[in-house]
Amino acid sequence: MKHNLRITIILLVMFLVTQLIGLWVVNHYTPSEKPLPYGFEPPEEIEPICKGMDNIRECLFTLFLSAFMFAIVILIFLFLVRVKSVWVMRIWFFIVVVLAIGLTLNALFDFIKIPNAYTYAIIIAIPLAIFKVFKRNIIIHNLTELLIYPGIAAVFVSLKFLINIWTIIPILLLISAYDIWAVWHSGIMQKMAKFQIDKVKIFSGFFVPYADKKTKQKIKRLKQKYKNKKISSKTLKKQKIKVNLAILGGGDVIFPIIAAGVFLVALKPIVLIPWKLWLSVFMVPLGATIALTYLFIFAKKRKFYPAMPFITAGIIAGMLLGWILSSIL
To answer: I need a surface site. Which of 16, 59, 288, 308 has the fewest CB within 10 A?
Structure first.
């Protein structure tokens, strides 16, 4: 097992809770419900490029366009890492965090009928983003992660001209292939994660530090020795105190939400019974969670693994099972 049981359960619970929040937020913003605030709602007149396997060229163009956009984002990020533009990355993170949390909170406030929900949502999102990006607090970091990915996923699901039931699986397969290359061959993922944590002081994903029993005893003795004093990082290095990090990248969290949201949009006009619809759609995050659990159990300590191939397999299995349930129930 890659991490101890307690840490593994914490990561899995945070992952699943984020999926459920994400599904609720996406459902709130899907067609015939509420529009996305802050200018994110795409024009209604734009038709999907890929409408099925009968127009294969349009589908291939959609995949190329999605891959190109994804590559541009990665290249910009790698460039910022290369030139070590810490403050540019922090501002980038800050803007994304504010808008993403604002989208999620707006859905909640709008649901409970608070007037001008989008204004109050952004007012609350700003201090949360400040604490997350410019202060280093593990609890705030992970709690805000629960709100960030649902908001971002809602934006992607709204882009029906690019992402729909016909394109989501090929997109997931491409991302899985990139994840394998980035983790096992180039090592880009490890470098990006290390730069975020060490230099930018923020990580896009769940982040849980923990220590074994021996390390905890050492830390306890140090606290007694340096009572009412701050223990420096140099002191920790001299005492050879190493804290393990359990991390789960943001991409591993957000793509299952997007897939489940696309599946929800596809089933909504077909499955009219609410409990039947939600049971069918729930198979997607359930499949992704089971796949991630398998990875955590069989992965070895201090080794890096691409999570997306496993999660993608779980998503596809969940979609198939959800489709079968929607047909037979």
So the answer is: 16
